[in-house]
């Protein structure tokens, strides 16, 4: 066209190629930039984790954790090696078979009911079979030979609980309009327990199926609060290593990283300085026990409370075991420590009414300083096609009969009854402690761990294998609790044990003398003082429990759980 300059074809082609090349180069640069950003974020994330680890555990603690992890993984590989694995599996199978032989009865007199009867049984037949089941061979908790486990309030109380069950067998608190009496009793139970723990005005709580659910709900509430108010997406909680394992379960269920803090001798309380070092922007909950299950020690809740207030982090106090004893220690005339809502940092408490509250099994409470904390554990589904659904805790339907049994128990025993029970139970515990510390037949070989104030006394041995002592006590009909880290035994005193604590001490003295006599015989025979431990406790805690990799223990525990459902 006249007056219009045209670019030569060769130049136009050259320009097109260059333009295409520039687009390709730009795309390549963008991809490289994206990769660099991703790598930078990855590096930043893990650098931050590393720095938090160093801050929380220190240089030596970090290297120690790394060493333990490497050792555990290497030992795990060793256990899976050809030849080793088959031997381990053989021993595990033998151990599980032994458990099954003990727990699953067999023989000509045992009848198994694996299908529904074609025709329903008569009342007489059912009651006769129930009586047979109740009298199956078992450790005699009725005679006070079982540590903890059965928190018996007396035959008269059981009779009242049974009456309460009968009146509310079909009741379900998910329908408060259908069962208004259950709603009223549940609210009153929460109110009574809140008052025991000196809750402030505006405090709240719910009943649960047990201590584990109470702890789960407290952890869930703390996680949800941190997410809603601080945007925490990688929650962490700091737990004494002696804290109840339900906190670890909560960590597993709810994706909360658990930091375990040592509770060193001689007081076996959580190390407050270590707790402080571990706190970071992801921390959603601090935990203390009053008392803890293993050793019966009350952590320094006052110090934890000050730390919680200073760092603005919720503090949960686990009183599931202490339940209706710790609130009455002072009134019963015993030494105590502050642990409840009188400390400003305490934001939640778990308390089992089915332990020393003597309520039927399946009853507990979780308490909060205010209603907003409780609301974080609620589940509400506003758009379900079945209607608006709301539940206060894990369960939907719940047994109103258990709530009725709990309410009846609290109202029957009353404050005076609980003070009397506290006096008897804690008094017997202190007598056992005195016997271990002062009796020449015990104090040369046994040592009480820490300074227990409530109903649990734990002791280790300075001279003998404590697990041999545990197995020998089992042979005498006792059902005590074996502990690990450190190796020990504990006794959780209940009302039935109060009646036989002197026999417990006497049998313990006889067992220790028996174990020392075995050592003397072995020395005379030239076999050395220490023999091979062969009992159940020695096998589980002394041998398998000492392995750096706990996979064998996990298999044993899994086999035990499977056995529970073997008909």
UniProtKB/TrEMBL annotation:
InterPro entries: GrpII_AminoAcid_Decarb, PyrdxlP-dep_de-COase, PyrdxlP-dep_Trfase, PyrdxlP-dep_Trfase_major, PyrdxlP-dep_Trfase_small. It is a single-pass membrane protein. Pfam families: Pyridoxal_deC (PF00282). It is found in: Endoplasmic reticulum membrane. Its main location: endoplasmic reticulum. Its cofactor is pyridoxal 5'-phosphate. One of its GO terms (molecular function) is sphinganine-1-phosphate aldolase activity. The modification N6-(pyridoxal phosphate)lysine is found at residue 355. Keywords: Endoplasmic reticulum, Lipid metabolism, Lyase, Membrane, Pyridoxal phosphate, Sphingolipid metabolism, Transferase, Transmembrane, Transmembrane helix. Its EC number is 4.1.2.27. GO terms for cellular component: endoplasmic reticulum membrane. Pathway: Lipid metabolism; sphingolipid metabolism; Sphingolipid metabolism. One of its GO terms (biological process) is carboxylic acid metabolic process. Belongs to the group II decarboxylase family. Sphingosine-1-phosphate lyase subfamily. This is sphinganine-1-phosphate aldolase.
């Amino acid at each position: 066209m006249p007056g219009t300059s045209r670019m030569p074809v060769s130049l136009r082609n050259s320009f097109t190629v260059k333009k295409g090349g520039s687009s390709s180069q730009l795309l390549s640069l963008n991809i490289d930039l994206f990769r660099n950003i991703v790598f930078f974020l990855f590096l930043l994330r893990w650098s931050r984790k590393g720095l938090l680890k160093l801050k929380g555990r220190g240089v030596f603690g970090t290297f120690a954790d790394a060493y333990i992890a490497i050792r555990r993984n290497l030992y795990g590989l060793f256990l899976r090696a050809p030849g080793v694995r088959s031997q381990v599996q053989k021993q595990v199978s033998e151990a599980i078979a032994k458990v099954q032989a003990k727990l699953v009865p067999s023989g000509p007199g045992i009848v198994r009911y694996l299908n529904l009867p074609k025709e329903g049984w008569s009342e007489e037949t059912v009651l006769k079979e129930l009586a047979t089941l109740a009298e199956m061979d078992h450790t005699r908790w009725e005679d006070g030979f079982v540590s903890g486990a059965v928190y018996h309030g007396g035959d008269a109380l059981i009779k009242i609980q049974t009456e309460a069950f009968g009146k509310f067998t079909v009741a379900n608190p998910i329908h408060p309009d259908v069962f208004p009496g259950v709603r009223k009793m549940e609210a009153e139970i929460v109110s009574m327990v809140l008052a025991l723990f000196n809750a402030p005005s505006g405090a709240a709580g719910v009943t649960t199926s047990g201590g584990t659910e109470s702890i789960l709900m407290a952890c869930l509430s703390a996680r949800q609060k941190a997410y809603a108010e601080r945007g925490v997406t990688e929650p962490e909680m700091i737990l004494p290593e002696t804290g109840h394992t339900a906190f670890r379960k909560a960590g597993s269920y709810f994706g909360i990283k658990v930091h375990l803090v040592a509770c060193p001798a001689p007081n076996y309380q959580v190390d407050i300085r270590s707790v402080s070092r571990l706190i970071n922007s992801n921390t959603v909950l601090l935990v203390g026990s009053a008392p803890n299950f293993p050793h019966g020690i009350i952590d320094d809740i006052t110090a934890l409370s000050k730390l919680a207030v200073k760092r603005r982090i919720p503090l949960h106090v686990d009183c599931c075991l202490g339940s209706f004893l710790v609130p009455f220690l002072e009134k019963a005339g015993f030494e105590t420590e502050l642990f409840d809502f009188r400390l400003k940092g305490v934001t939640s408490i778990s308390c089992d009414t089915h332990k020393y509250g003597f309520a039927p099994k399946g009853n507990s409470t979780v308490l909060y300083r205010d209603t907003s904390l409780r609301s974080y554990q609620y589940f509400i589904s506003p758009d379900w096609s079945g209607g608006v659904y709301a539940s206060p805790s894990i369960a939907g339907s719940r047994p109103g009969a258990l709530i009725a049994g709990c309410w009846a128990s609290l109202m029957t025993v009353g404050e005076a009854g609980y003070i009397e029970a506290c006096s008897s139970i804690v008094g017997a515990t202190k007598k056992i402690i005195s016997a271990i510390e002062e009796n020449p037949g015990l104090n040369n070989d046994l040592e009480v761990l820490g300074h227990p104030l409530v109903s649990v006394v734990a002791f280790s041995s300075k001279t003998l294998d404590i697990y041999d002592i545990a197995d020998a006590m089992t042979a005498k009909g006792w059902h005590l609790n074996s502990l690990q880290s450190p190796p020990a035994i504990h006794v959780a005193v209940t009302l039935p044990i109060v009646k036989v604590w002197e026999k417990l001490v006497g049998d313990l003295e006889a067992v220790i003398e028996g174990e020392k006599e075995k050592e003397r015989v072995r020395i005379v025979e030239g076999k050395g003082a220490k023999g091979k431990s062969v009992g159940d406790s020695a096998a589980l805690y002394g041998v398998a429990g000492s392995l750096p990799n706990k996979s064998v223990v996990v298999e044993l525990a899994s086999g035990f759980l499977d056995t529970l459902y073997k008909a």
